[in-house]
Amino acid sequence: MKIIQSLWVKPSLKKENINISDRNNGGWVDKKYNYMSWALSCLQFKKYYNEVELVTDSLGYDLLINKLELPYTKVDVSLDLLNDYHPDLWALGKIYAYSIQKEPFIHADGDIFIYKKFEDSFENSQLISQNIEKGFGYYDEAFKLIEEKFDYIPTYLTESKIENNGIIAVNAGLLGGSDLDFFKEYTDEAFKFVDKNVSKLHEINIGTINTVYEQFLFKAIAEKKKIDINYYLENINYSFDGLADFTSLPEKEKYIHTVGIYKRNEYIGDLLSHRLLTDYPDYYYKIINLIRTNQI
Asked: What does the alpha-carbon distance between residue 38 and residue 103 come to, in Å, rounded to a whole number?
């Protein structure tokens, strides 16, 4: 199994995070944590997997490869193709990365840190995700706006909502599998959803719809096609309690995902930086020096 990570830099170039869905500095309270997150994530995946690939743009290549010198085994620099899209559509970078895969894969966000290899049964699944998301209110809020404002809504979404009497989605911190035909249809439909509604984007908070066309759509199509999804984690609540327990690494906890709510907590950022200093001091000091000399 190969690991894929992706970085479309444009969403990170906003001057500040105004909305909860914004991705300035990758969503972190300070840029140093963003850089350290990418370093620790890549290095930990390389510890357990021979193939850890990156899909990025020219700015991402300069940052992660030229400056941070992260040891990705292969780099695809094609996300500049997305730069005509609105920067708040940050999930499109991941959608594009899924779309170009030619063999089974697991895509992992740059804020995930593993301390053991995934189980074979998980890796070999037709479709995989980090966890199911059911009863998460932000989907209802986002979808209500979509129903009111957008010209095109995939029937997968409306039918899924009706059949489940609500929205059930997945968390795409981890997303992948062996069913490449599924990913072809899924990513085509995601881009179709965005492209057909470009003229309506100014009427909504754009960032809120990313979870709809990435996470809800994934689950809805899988349901329609009756494809089982293998979830890595169970019983994850709306607050994602326990997913950033750096103090229990590596003896007790083996998996960390600093979802958005954690990135806004400076204490979590400090725990992350201490982990990088402990495990990879050379990379920690490289990042500190690059920041001090205004190179990143």
From this structure: 24
